[in-house]
Amino acid sequence: MRMDDIQAEAASRVAAAWFEDGLAELAGAGVLAGLSLIFAATPAIPEGWTPVAAGVWTMAALPLAGRWVQQRKLTHSVHRTGWVSFERSRPRRIAFTLVVMFGLIATVLALDTPHIAAVLAAAWAIGAGVGAWRTGLRRFQISALLGVVCAGGLLRSPLPLFTGLATVTAILAAGAAILGGGARARYLYLHREVA
Amino acid sequence: MAGWQDAFTDIDPVVHQPGRLMLLTMLASVESADFLFLLRVSGLTKGNLSAHLAKLEGAGYVAITKSFKGKVPMTVCAITASGRTALEQHKERLRMMATRIARLTSPA
Prior knowledge:
The complex is a heterodimer of chains A (195) and B (108).
Chain A lengths: L2 H17 L3 H18 L9 H32 L2 E2 L4 H22 L4 H20 L2 H19 L4 H30 L5
Helix pairs in contact in A: 2-3, 2-7, 5-6, 5-7, 6-7
Chain B lengths: L5 H4 L3 H4 L1 H11 L3 E3 H8 L3 H13 L3 E8 L2 E8 L1 H25 L3
Helix pairs in contact in B: 3-5
C-alpha cells in the first residue's frame, strides 16, 4: 500500500467516524421533511410562492440543522466516541452550501426540464455517492441508490411538478431517517456501556 | 556529499514509528481531534497514545490543548505546520527509500 493510499484511508476512516452516530442523516431527514411539507402544501400557498418558501426554509434550516448536529454531538457523542472537527471554516461551509444550492437551481433552469423532481433525486444520489466514496459507508451507498431509483421512477412516470417534489423529498427524508435512525441505534448499542 | 545511505539514515525516527505515523496521518486530515477520538480510531491503548502524543508534542509536530466545548472538557490535538512538513518529508523519503531498495534488490 502506498503512503498516499494510507493517508487517503486515514482521511476516509476519520470522515466515517464523524458520521458514525447517524446525527447528520437525522438532521438531513428533518430538512427534507420540511421541504416535503412545503411542496405538499402548495395548494394552500399563494401561487408562485412555493419555491420562495422552499428556498427560505432550506437557507434557514441547513445552518440550524448543522448547529443541532454539533450540539447533539457535544451532549450525546463526545463522551462516547470523542470529538473531531474538520478544516472547513464557517464562511467556507456557508459558501459551499450556497454554491451547491445555486448550482442545483442553475442546473434545473439550464436544463429547462419538467423533471425537476428527478433532477433533485439525481443530485441527492450524486451527493450521497460522493459521501459513500469519501467515507466508504454502506448506508451512503444505499442512500445514493435510493436517489437513483427515485430519479429513474420519476423519469418513467412523471408526476405534476410539486407533487413530484413533495413525493421525492418525502421518500428521501424517510430513507435518511431510517438509515440515520438505524445508524444511531447501532451507535448507542455499541457504546451503551459509556452512557 | 550526500550518499545513497542518506535515504535510510535521514528518516525522522519521531515520525517513522508506526503509531506516531498513524496519528500524524490522521491529524493531517482534520483540523483537530480529541484524545478519545484518536484512541478509538487509532486502536492504540491509552498509555501508548499518551506516550506517542507526548513525543509528537515534544518534537513540535502536534499541539495539545486542554479546552472546553460547551461544558465538556477535552484534550484537543492538532497537527502543527512543522508536523505537516515532517510528514510530507517522511513520505518523500519513503518514496526515495523504496526506489533505492528496488534498484539494490533488482537483478542486474
